[in-house]
């Protein structure tokens, strides 16, 4: 992804000092583009918790680099214990995205094959780099599969624009590159297919308004910001051809956890016969779970995110304002679960499949086998 013409990933090792991890600071966007240094595992835990980095794929890649930083600083005499504590701290940062535990466990498993602490440190670094590279590659691949779906709709309305609605930010910023929901959109746009994106603002943290709108703008993709509640109206009036969202965790039966409000979009899409696609790299599957509503842990965040809004004031300064009476209580669930029956197809790096156990198992036979599906 390019920012002002320069290619960036969302996370990388500092070029002249590979003991430092650098990330794009998503708390500063869209008003400021800043790169932040992370030097130890506690920096990574804080960055995931306070959402300097966020989005399923990037949370996974950050956690993997966090394990590398933990290995780098762990004393030889207490190496394994220190790494177990680091793994537990990272896993406790955010509960919903499957990529987090998946990445931590993958680095731990790789380190277990090393004999000395130094060998384990090298394995941690190589695995973190591999996870980040794979995340980018898989998102690019699923983008090609999704592009074919957009092209099919474009063919039904020659000369017209394909209107896509998305929720939250499952974009380049939520992964290492390309994004999940946005990868098909970028691929279609780059191939000359006329696309336009309806961007849900995505209260309470407004990742649609601050992040998706920003990155679509950087890439030159036509888009329009809408209030979260507008989608159903647009669908009723033929203004949406398809919905594409990302996801933070998908069960082996195809239930999808995504940013709060996704379920309502899926209901409106079904009522209006509009296809609802969910894009994900395989690291977002939780093959141990069947029932998403019962089994997927839903993060509940602080009430202040609902009671306050942050933005730029007329003087250009970023500030937070309270939008309710002083004493109004609030609750803040970060995600909801869309049952598989409301999802038209899942778009993965291996291809497009129905959201059901048989179709998912056909695409991921080894991963869904009972011996393998443990987390
Ligand atoms: O709370 P966030 O911003 O980390 O939530 C993640 C999301 O942006 C969405 O749920 C997204 O659509 C899926 S993550 C690729």
Would you mind describing this structure in some detail?
- It contains 13 helices and 18 strands.
- By secondary structure, it is α/β, with parallel strands linked by helices.
- The protein has helices spanning 41-49, 56-73, 79-91, 98-112, 117-156, 182-190, 207-219, 231-236, 262-271, 292-295, 304-307, 357-363, 365-368, and strands spanning 2-3, 6-7, 11-14, 17-24, 35-38, 162-166, 195-200, 223-226, 242-245, 249-251, 256-259, 276-279, 285-286, 308-312, 318-322, 335-338, 345-348, 351-353.
- It binds 5-S-methyl-1-O-phosphono-5-thio-D-ribulose.
- 5-S-methyl-1-O-phosphono-5-thio-D-ribulose (MRU) is lined by residues 54-56, 168-170, 174, 180, 207, 245-248, 258-259, 334.
List keywords for this structure.
single chain, 375 residues, alpha/beta, Four Helix Bundle (Hemerythrin (Met), subunit A), Rossmann fold, 2 domains, seven-stranded mixed sheet, four-stranded mixed sheet, 13 helices, 18 strands, 41% helix, 19% strand, globular, binds 5-S-methyl-1-O-phosphono-5-thio-D-ribulose
In short:
By secondary structure, the chain is α/β, with parallel strands linked by helices. It has two domains: 2-134, Four Helix Bundle (Hemerythrin (Met), subunit A) (Up-down Bundle), CATH 1.20.120.420; 139-373, 3-Layer(aba) Sandwich (Rossmann fold), CATH 3.40.50.
């Amino acid at each position: 992804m390019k920012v002002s013409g320069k290619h960036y990933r969302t996370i990388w090792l500092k070029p002249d000092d590979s003991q430092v991890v650098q990330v794009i600071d998503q708390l500063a966007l869209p008003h400021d583009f800043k790169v932040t240094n992370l030097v130890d595992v506690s920096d990574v835990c804080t960055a995931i918790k306070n959402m300097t980095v966020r989005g399923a794929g990037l949370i996974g890649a950050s956690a993997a680099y966090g394990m590398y930083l933990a290995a780098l600083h762990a004393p030889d005499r207490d190496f394994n214990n220190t790494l177990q504590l680091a793994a537990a701290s990272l896993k406790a940062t955010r509960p919903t995205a499957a990529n987090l535990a998946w990445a931590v466990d993958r680095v731990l498993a790789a380190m277990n094959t090393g004999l000395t602490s130094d060998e384990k440190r090298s394995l941690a670094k190589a695995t973190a780099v591999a996870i980040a590279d794979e995340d980018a590659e898989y998102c690019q691949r699923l983008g090609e599969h999704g592009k074919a779906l957009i092209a099919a709709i474009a063919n039904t309305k020659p000369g017209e624009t394909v209107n896509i609605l998305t929720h939250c930010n499952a974009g380049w910023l939520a992964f290492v590159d390309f994004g999940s929901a946005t990868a098909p959109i970028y691929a279609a746009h780059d191939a000359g297919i006329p696309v336009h994106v309806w961007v849900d603002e995505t209260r309470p943290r407004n990742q649609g308004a601050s992040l998706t709108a920003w990155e679509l703008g950087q890439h030159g993709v036509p888009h329009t910001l809408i209030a979260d509640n507008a989608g159903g109206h647009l669908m009723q009036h033929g203004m949406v051809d398809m919905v594409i969202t990302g996801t933070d965790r998908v069960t082996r039966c195809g239930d999808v956890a995504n940013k709060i409000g996704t379920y309502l979009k899926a209901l409106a899409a079904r009522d209006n016969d509009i296809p609802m696609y969910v894009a994900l790299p395989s690291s977002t599957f939780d093959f141990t779970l069947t029932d998403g509503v019962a089994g997927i842990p839903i993060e509940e965040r602080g009430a202040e995110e609902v009671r306050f809004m942050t933005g730029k004031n007329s003087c250009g300064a970023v500030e937070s304002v309270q939008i309710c009476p002083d004493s109004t209580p609030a609750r803040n669930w970060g995600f909801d679960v869309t049952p598989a029956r409301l999802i038209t197809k899942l778009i993965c790096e291996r291809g497009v499949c129905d959201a059901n156990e048989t179709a998912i198992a056909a695409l991921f036979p080894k991963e869904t086998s009972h011996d393998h599906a443990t987390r």
